[in-house]
# Entry
Amino acid sequence: MSVPSRVLRLGVAFATLPAAVLVGPAVAAPSGAAETSARADARPAVVERVVFGQSRRGRDLVAYRLGDPGARRSAVVIAAMHGDERKPQVILRTLRDGRPIEGLDLWIVPNANPDGVARKARRNARGVDLNRNFPRKWKRSKRGTTWSGPRAASEPETKAMMRFLRRVAPDQVVSFHQPLYGIDTSGTGNRPLARRLARHLKLPKRSFSCGSGCHGTLSQWFNHRLDGQLVTVELGRRPSRAYLTRTAPHGLLKALGGRRV
Ligand SMILES: [Zn+2]
# Structure
């Protein structure tokens, strides 16, 4: 079912909403939202913009809701949890800034680690690898590239992401990384989502073991604690512009069950 353009125009796009209303109806517009801003017009795919937390340095963690809030299928797509893996952000921004989407209630988080992205660094401002900080099989580790933090879920970015995913409760989650080149099938087995992503994103199915074994990853936490399925997607080191702006956005929508209007 397509979202009527009236809803897209009068929705709560670009209002900064408290997290409490995050899963509220997209058309429950606060006062003033009927005025369509030039910015909202420039992004007809965006139904809602939500600040769901802050980074350690106080930068906003932003999610955009695209597509049809009433659709049967839902998905969250995350990029840049490691701040030096920024190419996948192009895919998410392409979807956000493109034509409206239908058939899918799609949320995107283009920047899951704004402090890391600002410094072009893997870890957050405290030096924690956010993809080792989730409270599932969390393990203490030495400070360094994959420091898991002083304790499980010690970081504001981790806690905010957990709260966000619990509230949205998506059927499908895609978490983008680089540069290992493949769809991670470890922990997801032969699940249909991994197969569809491999086919439509034109990537091989592989099993990534996080180097010394996975501990406290978003994937481990989500796939154990919530009902949907999360698949980690690793792009290569230098995906082409055409791949990031055409092949991948189109393939991602197809794999998740949505399409552009
Ligand atoms: Zn990564």
